[in-house]
């Protein structure tokens, strides 16, 4: 009924007519039912989030005839810089990530928008036929696509996100992995201050090859070019509620690279199991043990040794602190919270007006206002700290989010304030 005129209601309510039959009658010639639905959703006078909610809850089953398109695996190639020919048996390189940093900063460059658009489309086409979908891929930014190469015909493309779809606090990057022009996998990197959640997934056809070499290069890029110092591997990636991760033995892949469990008990179990493997080369870790090993996130901590052991600042705790603040202070709810918070934060940061700000920058300021209003001593910050915070907010709406990553890492006062908010929420 959202898609019809009032006088169509009796036809919609006809119990002898199925929904599918009604849609077929409503479609124009040459239209598909999916095309009709998307057109109707697009014409609704409602926020995008509502349209997405309606579509997701329809839980439609789609069929995609790939045909002779680049979405078909055999036609998915992109033009390689240069074909690499393997002239000898492939030898797996032993990689230890901390040691690999001695190689220095890897080559890294920004693609032109046209080339970036092709990479975005290539990554989407590589994922969807394999029944995979990532939020940062669907909303990737063609104007922020970087390229780097470990050699041997391998290329890694890193994709930032469109400004309006970026995460509230984190910077989310996806990656396309290519060998001789053929997509062979994908990756993610989620940055927040010096923490970088990182992972790659090589498609099963191309496993047992150069995954360690690819991951090493991916790791070095985010260390040298994005300033990451604590690298996290989520437990799902190593097999928690992930049968593919268990069967592929991904825990040991990342363990050999240098990742260690955050849970001391699981770390001790891993060391015991590793000693068994070292003593007996035929020993294989059983699934029951792999499930235990996968109960904890893993980390490589490269921060200065003087700092305390790594403890993740959880964005969920920060988000819940904002929710609690709104519930405590604003009986009228979110609209009142936004209006009052914006005014309070403008006063605290000495912002006269937002006339010179772009529309995306104003949107980010609105999004950040309730969070910043939760910081009790914001007005007492030094002038430079306030100015850097304003630059940081505006950079979140910038053409490329990489500048935001750097500004966030350098704002130690904001880190301390957010850490306090998170700890109050946990208390």
Can you describe this structure?
With 427 residues, this protein is an alpha+beta fold. 44% of the residues lie in helices and 14% in strands. It contains 18 helices and 9 strands. It has a 9-stranded mixed β-sheet with strand order 1-2-3-4-5-6-7-9-8. A hairpin with a 2-residue loop joins strand 5 and strand 6 (195-202). Helix 13 (315-329) packs across helix 18. It is globular.
Summed up, what is this model?
The protein is α+β, with helices and mostly antiparallel strands and 427 residues long. 44% of the residues lie in helices and 14% in strands.
- The number of strands is 9
Terminal residue distance: 47 Å
Uncertain residue segments: none
Major sheet summary line: 9 strands, mixed
Report the helical percentage.
40-55%
User: What does the overall shape look like?
Assistant: globular
Number of DSSP helices?
A: 18
Record keyword descriptors for this entry.
single chain; 427 residues; alpha+beta
Layout of secondary structure:
Elements (H helix, E strand, L loop, with lengths): L8 H4 L6 H8 L6 H11 L4 H11 L38 H4 L8 E2 L2 H15 L7 H4 L1 E12 L2 E8 L9 E9 L2 E11 L2 E8 L8 H14 L5 E4 L9 H5 L2 H8 L2 E2 L2 H16 L7 H7 L4 E4 L13 H15 L4 H15 L10 H15 L9 H13 L6 H9 L1 H15 L1
Parallel strand pairs: 6-7
Antiparallel strand pairs: 1-2, 2-3, 3-4, 4-5, 5-6, 7-9, 8-9
């Amino acid at each position: 009924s959202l898609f019809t005129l009032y006088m169509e209601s009796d036809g919609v309510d006809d119990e002898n007519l199925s929904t599918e039959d009604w849609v077929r009658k409503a479609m124009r010639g040459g239209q598909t039912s999916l095309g009709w639905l998307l057109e109707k959703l697009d014409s609704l006078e409602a926020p995008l989030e509502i349209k997405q909610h309606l579509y997701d809850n329809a839980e439609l089953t789609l069929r995609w005839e790939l045909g002779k398109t680049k979405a078909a695996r055999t036609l998915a190639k992109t033009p390689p810089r240069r074909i690499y020919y393997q002239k000898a048996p492939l030898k797996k390189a032993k990689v230890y990530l901390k040691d690999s940093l001695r190689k220095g900063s890897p080559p890294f460059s920004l693609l032109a928008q046209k080339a970036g658009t092709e990479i975005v489309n290539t990554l989407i086409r590589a994922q969807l036929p394999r029944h995979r979908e990532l939020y940062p891929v669907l909303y990737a930014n063609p104007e922020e696509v970087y390229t780097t190469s470990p050699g041997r015909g391998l290329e890694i493309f890193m994709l930032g996100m469109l400004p309006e779809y970026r995460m509230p606090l984190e910077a989310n990057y996806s990656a396309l992995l290519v060998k001789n022009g053929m997509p062979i996998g994908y990756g993610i990197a989620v940055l927040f201050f010096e923490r970088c959640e990182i992972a790659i997934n090589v498609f099963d056809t191309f496993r047992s090859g150069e995954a360690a070499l690819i991951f090493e290069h991916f790791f070095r890029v985010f260390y040298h070019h994005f300033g990451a110092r604590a690298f996290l591997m989520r437990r799902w990636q190593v097999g928690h509620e992930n049968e593919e991760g268990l069967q592929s033995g991904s825990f040991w892949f990342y363990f050999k690279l240098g990742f260690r469990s955050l849970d001391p008990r699981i770390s001790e179990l891993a060391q015991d199991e590793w000693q068994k493997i070292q003593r007996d080369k035929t020993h294989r870790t059983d699934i029951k043990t792999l499930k235990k090993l996968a109960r904890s996130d893993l980390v490589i901590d490269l921060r200065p040794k003087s700092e305390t052991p790594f403890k993740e600042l959880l964005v969920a705790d920060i988000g819940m602190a904002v929710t609690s603040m709104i519930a405590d202070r604003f009986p009228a709810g979110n609209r009142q919270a936004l209006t009052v918070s914006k005014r309070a934060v403008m006063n605290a940061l000495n912002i006269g007006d937002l006339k010179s700000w772009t529309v995306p920058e104003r949107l980010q300021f609105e999004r950040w206002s309730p969070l910043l209003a939760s910081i009790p001593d914001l007005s007492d910050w030094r002038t430079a700290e306030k100015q850097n915070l304003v630059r940081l907010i505006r950079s979140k709406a910038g053409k490329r989010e990489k500048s935001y990553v750097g500004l966030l890492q350098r704002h130690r006062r904001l880190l301390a304030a957010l850490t306090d908010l998170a700890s109050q929420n946990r208390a």
